[in-house]
Design brief:
The complex is a heterodimer. Chain A is of the alpha+beta class. In chain A, about 35% of the residues lie in helices and about 15% in strands. Classes of the chains: A alpha+beta, B alpha+beta.
């Protein structure tokens, strides 16, 4: 049996406690213990961005972070963007701009875009491309994803003080 | 009087119906599903490339707490061969022929326990000489890879025209052969003023679906099997699973959760799927099996690697005279769809341009390498890479402009090629003209040639390539049809139940649009059901760029039957002639004036709650007017053909070999644009997939071992690397297509590598015959060309 620890953190605005094996990744904890499956496994080594979440304001691959390291941190996943003004505008822009095909990379892409707009409220297209270069998409060729982030930014989906 | 104008959704930018769910992370893929009582499966794969299995000891694994079953071939004596060639058993018992080979499988209470159990299985091998070069595998006296006796089997239905290798062929490591001929090549050679003859080498790439492979299998107490599967061909798989498992196909239900990318990878049954079923059977529990990314790279199919020799000739005026194509397909250890890519390759050789005399031959050879499946474009990227480079070479040898050379030999509408393909619509000349004009190809091409010798480090060049692909299905099975069930409820809400699967390409949205167009209802009044073989009517599967065309025509057929029934009822109620009535915006209207006569929902209710008590429910089965190829591979295999031309502009850093794709200008004959947002997405995504094939992706297979099974070392294109894209649509309004549309799914990926090769040559004067155009490969080619020049 593996060693387990109980940890506490804020997940999508809710104080949460979880008992996790010490070797478990944050990705596995979110999917298997907390039960939120919007964060996707696609490589497990931080190369594809499908499991992107925001931890204390920084976008992170959940597969690269031990669950025990979530202790006392604030986490935002795709599920936490439902009532977030930036997240809502992004999700709508992804729909309207045709940025979704198979959809498997989409949650990670939206979370990364949220982080990008929080830190760069008015990105150029080149800045958007750089901002999502760690997120792989096999379907869309990225054009419509870049369109969507640009549109959300124009529609006032900026982060920072509101 | 309320007047309703006619409105159309065709050609508009329509958001995908499944996008809101996907963008909010709420979509449940197979990876996200868990059934109560579910166990987790893992597979033990061979650590050897080619070996006899002397002994497998699973006793320690079975003893591990939490392990419910450990299976080897000995535990499933009833297993039957699977796949296109029926040349492998799911679990290998006596011999392994590649590093992906499945030796044992575990079902346990968690993935961690299953993995721990795998580590406790002892396998003793006796190594056999590995064969990893297809040319060596053909040498007399080479070790034989398939020397086994398989249980008796029915040959795969679609392969009737081909020549699957028999036991005798297998003794020479030949998996399949293909031969095609038209005209008389000797005549063509005699007529030629110039002949070019080259070898082309096409590499391994793989699909890299973002969602890894996975399946859940569950038996109910009556012995019925439910599979939660990512398959692209659920109805064909019902039958194939039944054969492999020795079951009645009627007892198998396939549910397709949303699929995280297909691209052709899910057209065959792979060993992991029946293995998961064996485990479910052995444990009486639902069993879930999901790959790791590494496993996905090692044990899912690749694009077919090809060694290809092409000879082509032309007359002084540029008229093509003949083509001879010979290919060696590395079949890998087992036969899947990759071996059958000649079906498509020979079409490009014989019919992309007019060629009177052709000969085509493929030998697919068993090796101990990974095996190839179908992959978006299906051999056409490989064939087009060779054909379109030689079009440039012939033009250059004859002193003809490469664009003029292509226009001279381009097909026209109405032609039937010697291979029997009938081009009822054909926009190739318009594609060529539009793509080259929009990209200023002529000026740029000339300027680049003039600048080739200038001592500049960065050189620009443009290249052009065109493609022909099936655009109205492909009749390689006994039927190429699709069924639809359509029902309208009391509130004029339509449920469209279609056999056509959605794999992200947007088919459910297009099918809903087509139904709205017939029934005059808004898009949000349609629900599409497309993922359960117990509910949906038969469809051959999502492949061959066929879903919009075939599924679309099927949906339209069902909608028209519903419309006829509604209008007949409306005519009775209003006392007006049926011919003067139409459906618009949820109302019955007078066609001429647009005057709203009745609310559609109200009419439906009056039908339902009358003494006749009738519901509007219709069915339609659409079978395209296409034909099987005969034994000589001749026949009009698709109801329509798609065309495209792409111009690629590159910048080559001649000091480092780094090639940057600056811009891709595409002109695509798509018949008609149905959903502009969706079709742009298909083409942009296809171009970038083609870019990956041309520039960055390579599955490195050394001595039968995949050396780069991860995204760190297998380089997919990322957002900052995409080219500018300028896409034009040529609308030829195909008479058979749904609202005039043709298939487009595969087309955009096909030309990129060929056009890039021509662009690099235009920029540098150096022609490269091998993919991918990585900095290293390009740099070596440039240096070799410089050395050759210096030696002259």
């Amino acid at each position: 049996m593996s060693l387990k620890r109980e940890i506490g953190f804020v997940l999508n605005g809710i104080r949460t406690r979880a008992t996790v094996p010490v070797e478990m990744s944050t990705l596995a904890m979110l999917r298997e213990i907390v039960g939120l499956t919007g964060t996707k496994y696609a490589c497990g080594e931080g190369e594809c961005g499908a499991c992107t979440i925001i931890v204390d304001g920084l976008s992170t691959c959940a597969c690269l972070m031990f669950a025990v390291d979530c202790e006392e941190r604030t986490l935002t996943t795709i599920e936490g963007l439902v009532r977030d003004p930036v997240g809502e505008k992004l999700e709508q822009a992804f729909v309207d701009c045709g940025a979704v095909q198979c959809g498997f990379c989409t949650p990670g892409m939206v979370v990364q875009a949220k982080h990008l707009l929080e830190t760069h409220p008015h990105p150029t297209r080149a800045e958007i491309e750089r901002g999502i270069e760690g997120n792989l998409c096999r379907c869309t060729g990225y054009v419509k994803i870049i369109d969507a982030i640009e549109k959300a930014s124009r529609n006032g989906a900026q982060g920072g003080p509101r | 009087m309320k007047v309703i104008e006619k409105e159309s959704l065709i050609g508009k930018r329509i958001a995908k119906l499944d996008a809101p769910e996907k963008a909010s992370g709420k979509t449940r893929y197979v990876h996200d599903l868990d059934l109560s009582g579910q166990l987790y499966a893992r597979i033990l794969r061979s650590t050897r490339v080619h070996a006899r299995i002397k002994r497998i000891d699973v006793s320690r694994a079975r003893a591990l707490p939490g392990v419910h079953a450990v299976l080897t071939a000995a535990d499933v004596p009833y297993q039957r061969p699977l796949g296109i060639g029926k040349d492998q058993l799911p679990l290998k018992g006596d011999k392994v022929r590649s590093r992906r080979d499945e030796i044992a499988a575990v079902a346990a209470e968690s993935e961690a326990v299953a993995n721990a159990a795998l580590a406790l299985i002892d396998v003793e091998y006796e190594d056999l000489p590995p064969l990893t070069d297809p040319a060596e595998a053909l040498m007399p006296g080479a070790p034989v890879i398939h020397d086994e006796k398989m249980p008796p089997q029915a040959p795969h239905e679609s392969l009737k025209p081909g020549e699957p290798g028999d036991a005798e062929a297998h003794r020479h490591n030949v998996a399949m052969t293909f031969d095609y001929a038209q005209g008389d090549v000797a005549v063509g050679e005699a007529e030629s003023d110039v002949i070019v003859d080259d070898w082309f080498r096409l590499h391994y790439v793989t699909h890299c679906c973002m969602g890894v492979s996975g399946v859940i299998a569950e038996f109910d107490p009556s012995g019925n099997l439910t599979l939660y599967s990512n398959t692209q061909v659920p109805f064909l798989h019902k039958r194939e699973f039944a054969e492999i498992l020795g079951m009645d196909p009627g007892r198998i239900r396939i549910i397709q959760p949303p699929i995280g990318g297909g691209f052709g990878s899910k057209l065959d049954i792979y060993p992991f799927e029946p293995i998961c079923v064996f485990l479910a059977k052995a444990t009486d529990r639902p069993v879930k099996l999901v790959f790791s990314r590494e496993e996905e790279f090692v044990a899912s199919p690749t694009r077919q690697p090809v060694l290809l020799r092409l000879r082509s000739g032309a007359k002084k005026d540029g008229t093509l005279t003949f083509r001879v194509c010979e290919t060696l397909h590395d079949n890998g250890a087992y036969t899947s769809w990759g071996a059958t890519t000649p079906f498509v390759m020979m079409q490009t050789i014989s019919s992309l341009y007019r060629v009177p005399h052709c000969k085509y031959h493929t030998t697919a050879v068993y090796t101990n390498n990974p095996y190839a499946g179908s992959f978006r474009g299906y051999g056409n990227l490989q064939a087009t890479f060779a054909v379109e480079q030689q079009m440039d070479k012939l033009a250059e040898a004859l002193g003809i402009d490469p664009l003029d050379m292509r226009l001279k030999n381009a097909q026209d509408p109405g032609e039937t090629t010697p291979q029997g393909m009938h081009f009822k619509t054909c926009g190739l000349k318009d594609c060529l003209t539009q793509a080259t004009a929009a990209s200023h190809w002529r000026e740029k091409h000339r300027a680049a040639i003039a600048a080739q010798k200038a001592p500049t480090r960065y050189k620009r060049g443009v290249g052009v390539a065109s493609m022909l692909h099936v655009g109205g299905g492909a009749k390689i099975y006994p039927s190429d049809g699709c069924g639809t069930i359509l029902k309208i409820d009391d509130f004029a809400h339509v449920t469209l139940i279609t056999g056509a699967s959605e794999i992200g390409q947007g088919s459910e949205t297009v099918l809903a649009q087509l139904v709205c167009e017939e029934l005059g209802i808004p898009l949000d009044a349609v629900t599409v059901v497309n993922n359960d073989t117990d509910i949906t009517p038969w469809d051959v599967g999502v492949h061959a760029s066929r879903t919009t065309f075939i599924g679309g025509n099927s949906a339209i057929g069902a909608a028209r039957k519903a419309k006829a029934k509604i209008l007949a009822a409306a005519a009775k109620v209003t006392g007006l002639p049926e011919a003067g009535l139409e459906l618009r915006a949820g109302h019955i209207v007078r066609t001429e004036s647009g005057e709203a006569l009745m609310n559609l929902a109200k009419l439906l209710r009056s039908l339902h709650f009358s003494d006749k008590a009738d519901l509007v429910m219709t069915t339609h089965y659409y079978e395209p007017p296409s034909h099987h190829q005969d034994k000589a591979f001749k026949g009009d295999v698709s109801a329509a053909y798609a065309w495209a031309t792409q111009v690629v502009e590159v910048e080559v850093d001649t000091e480092t070999g780094v090639v940057r794709l600056v811009k891709v200008t595409g002109a695509h004959d798509v018949g008609r644009v149905l959903n502009r947002l969706g079709i742009e997405g298909q083409i942009e995504g296809g171009i970038v997939m083609g870019q990956g094939y041309a520039m960055t992706e390579e599955l490195i297979v050394q001595d039968g071992i995949v050396r780069n099974p991860g995204f760190r070392d297998y380089k997919l294109v990322t957002a900052p690397e995409i080219p500018e894209m300028d896409i034009h649509f040529i609308e030829t309004m195909d008479g058979e297509g749904p609202q005039g549309a043709k298939g487009v799914g595969e087309a955009p990926a096909i030309c990129v590598a060929a056009a890039t090769a021509n662009a690099i040559c235009n920029a540098t004067g150096v022609r490269i015959y091998e993919l991918p155009f990585t900095p290293e490969n390009v740099y070596r080619a440039l240096v070799a060309a410089r050395a050759e020049k210096a030696a002259e």
